[in-house]
Amino acid sequence: MGKGVVPLPIFAGLSGYRAGWVRGDVSAGLAVAAVGLPSAIAYPAIAGLPPETGIYASILPLVAYAFFGPSRQLIVGPDAATMTVLAAVLAAVVASVPAGVAVDRPAIAATLALAVGLYCLLARALRLGVVANFLSRPILTGFFAGISLSILIGQIGRFTGLSIQADGLIGPVLEFIREAASTHWPSLLLAMCMFVLLQIARSMRFPVPGPVVVIVLAVILSALFDFEGHGIAVVGDIPAALPSLALPQVSGLPIDTVLLGAAAIFLVSFGSGVVCARSFGAQAGFPVDANRELTGFGAANIAAGLFGAFPVSASDSRTAVNLTVGGNSQVVSLIAAATLVAAVLFLAPALRILPIPALGAILASTAIGLIDLDALRRIWRVSRMEFVFALIAMWGPIGLGVLNGVVIAVGATLIYLLRKLMFPRDALLGRVPGRAGFFKLHRVSDAGSIPGLAIVLIQGSLLFFNTDYVKSRLLAIAAELPGDTRWLLIDASAIAQIDSSAAAMLDEVRATLADRGIRLGLAELHSEARDMLGRAGVIERIGEAMIFDDLEDVDLAFKAQGKRVRT
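RESULT FIELD:
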């Protein structure tokens, strides 16, 4: 390899490969494929896509991430939350397609996958991996709970055999109540039995994953009792061929709607994917770099788009299986992909008779797994306010639809962030006899203020949206100071940023204090904040003599000034 050429991550990951890893990687690859096949067939139904698209989304993206992704053990593939957002985006795109233009849902899904992949690579180039933190854990927890309820409601038709047309949370339930007399009872009985079996498998920790048991059992029963002949819907023909490389046709599609929808999918899929990666990284001890993950997720989604699939993300169930069985490297993904290729080529006839109610049971069970009650209880215990925001994020997908729910989640994050920043904390500082340093007067009982000198610590950046609050706090503190106070010093060590609005506010405070005979000073300014105040002329009006490198200098200068006044 030439000098300066960066090797593909897969070569770096396999550079120390050991012969002893082969058995674990092969076993893990087969297990990942076995667990992935049921969800690969079931998840496309959430977005109204044919089942083969889910299988395609479980093959080429695995290979792409193995080559370009940074993690040796993370597994990508179809994800329930991403699929639910995709379903909403597909509905919006289809509704925006001009009359007379043919609608090809798989082609639209592939186009969205390409766009998500390009968003990932663009974000990687701009080093925007921090976007993974944009949806906080409490808001993601609430959002996924809302998503799960949407998925559950979406299974009414698959459980009952009814054609449910209503959208939202209440509409489908009311439609089911009106049409309950037409319920196809064999379908409902089969779905309920498969759902109960999945819950038993989960609670008893079956050695074989529940979805695999359900798929195998449902196919056998369908073959023995001719479910299709008795009116139970089945998956139908699955192409026994591999996808071909091709650009999806985008002519006639509303590009603005596609790009906005892809941005929503990108935000949710990448945010949840990195949370998944970090969770398993903490357990297994592998590092997670959000910026490098952007490359892996970008490659996986571009591969999905080029081979007729849909957007993908990190898969918690497949990654968990990989770690449990003992996978050690990207070879696991390659073996899992090869196994799924074999399934496409040789199992298509068997999968054709897979009953739809069994897929509904898998999706309903998956949806319940998305509701993390333990996490919600922890959020309630730690922060009532964060719990409120989790509920807001949960209400979004339920009350306004999934796509609007993404906007609600983002909006809740912004409001939560702004609320944190709008009211920075402050504290008066003083000395403790016989001890070095300065201490908060309200926390250290024997700390006392220095006569004639007030030191105020402001804990947070000063920006346009909090300047009025900070000004009111500084003036309120000044109003309560003893009459002999000559200096009010702001400890700026915790002020990371100051904008022009904050500079103007500090100048106003300086002028108001000067009218009361109090001089304003600043200590421990960061260089960026000092440059801003310098350009605004605030440093000049305050006076260089009242700008200090640290609080000890403030104390010395104040005492020296007092001596000069007395002499």
